[in-house]
């Protein structure tokens, strides 16, 4: 539908802690959270202002389950072809394409450096929803606002995702000893950046959610039992960012004005 657009954000939290995660993110972002009603599987849906923004679920009670984390999904027009292209480009299919009744078709993959991401081919809709509808909207608070890749090879990362999702190279920011922060575009808008690993132990994606007042959001994060890892820090465009993790350890970030604006 909108090939290459960030389209969904999905939290996998610790086993038995889904209710706690619901309460934390509802407190931080004002999300309304309800059970999706999926038979045989507990999956919660978070909405804000009438738009579905994120899904939340818990990890299985298995030894060796991955730690709590956010997964970012990108829209594709033909998911089976896209999954096949991932392998051609040197990536890995972690979970092959399968249907979600009433929603579309999804897959989970890893790029050549090992960063995990999702792809989603939404079911056709008539009329097609406008591009600003859904989980991704850089002009609405509590929606997806920015995506960031930390990787062992940013140049290879940009080449991979450009070939797969049609992203284009934008401006670059010199971060001194930390290297270059390379912005990239979807259509005509900057939607994210790529950089070296920094403090990340392995290549990974980081989801940013928009807030109207970063300082107040950080207070809500702390009040809910989360931890501020980095920031707040001013970035180009007169915005502020901060990176945090929730009480179960899943990392996420917030971006917006430092103080609430009417």
Helices and strands in order:
Elements: E1 6-13, H1 18-29, E2 32-35, E3 44-48, E4 51-58, E5 69-75, H2 79-88, E6 92-100, E7 104-110, E8 116-122, E9 144-150, H3 154-165, E10 168-174, E11 180-186, E12 189-195, E13 204-210, H4 214-223, E14 227-235, E15 239-245, E16 251-256
Parallel strand pairs: 1-4, 5-8, 9-12, 13-16
Antiparallel strand pairs: 1-5, 2-3, 3-4, 6-7, 7-8, 9-13, 10-11, 11-12, 14-15, 15-16
If you had to describe this structure to a student in words, what would you say it looks like?
By secondary structure, this protein is α+β, with helices and mostly antiparallel strands. The chain is built from four helices and 16 strands. The strands form two sheets. The protein has an eight-stranded mixed sheet with strand order 2-3-4-1-5-8-7-6, with helices on one face. It has an eight-stranded mixed sheet with strand order 10-11-12-9-13-16-15-14, with helices on one face. Helix 1 (18-29) runs antiparallel to helix 4.
State the total count of DSSP E strands: 16
- SS-based class: alpha+beta
- Rg calc: 17 Å
Net shape? globular
Low-confidence stretches: none
Number of helices: 4
Report the average pLDDT across residues.
Answer: 94
Q: Kindly state the percentage of residues in helix.
A: 10-25%
**Oligomer, anyone?**
single chain
| Spatial strand arrangement across the major sheet | 2-3-4-1-5-8-7-6
Name its key features:
4 helices; eight-stranded mixed beta sheet; globular; alpha+beta
Give a short summary of the structure:
The chain has about 260 residues and is an alpha+beta fold. The chain is built from four helices and 16 strands. It has helices at about 20-30, 80-90, 155-165, 215-225; strands at about 5-15, 30-35, 45-50, 50-60, 70-75, 90-100, 105-110, 115-120, 145-150, 170-175, 180-185, 190-195, 205-210, 225-235, 240-245, 250-255.
């Amino acid at each position: 539908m909108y090939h290459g657009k960030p389209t969904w954000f999905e939290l996998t939290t610790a086993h038995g802690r889904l209710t706690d995660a619901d309460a934390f993110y509802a407190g931080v972002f004002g999300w309304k959270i309800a059970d999706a009603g999926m038979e045989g599987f507990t999956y919660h849906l978070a909405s804000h202002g009438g738009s579905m923004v994120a899904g939340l679920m818990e990890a299985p009670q298995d030894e060796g389950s991955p730690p709590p984390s956010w997964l970012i999904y990108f829209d594709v027009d033909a998911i089976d072809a896209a999954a096949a292209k991932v392998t051609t480009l040197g990536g890995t299919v972690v979970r092959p394409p399968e249907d979600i009744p009433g929603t579309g078709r999804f897959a989970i993959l890893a790029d050549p450096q090992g960063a995990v991401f999702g792809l989603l081919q939404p079911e056709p809709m008539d009329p097609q929803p406008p591009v600003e509808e859904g989980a991704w909207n850089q002009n609405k608070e509590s929606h997806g606002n920015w995506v960031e890749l930390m990787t062992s090879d940013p140049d290879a990362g940009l080449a991979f995702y450009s070939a797969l999702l049609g992203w284009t190279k934008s401006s670059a920011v010199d971060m001194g000893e930390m290297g270059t922060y390379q912005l990239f575009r979807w259509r005509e808008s900057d939607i994210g950046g790529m950089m070296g690993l920094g403090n990340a132990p392995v290549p990974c994606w980081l989801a940013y959610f928009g807030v109207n007042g970063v300082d107040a959001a950080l207070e809500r994060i702390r009040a809910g039992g989360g931890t501020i890892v980095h920031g707040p820090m001013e970035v180009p465009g007169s915005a502020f960012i901060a990176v945090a993790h929730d009480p179960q350890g899943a990392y996420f970030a917030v971006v917006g004005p430092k103080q609430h604006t009417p």
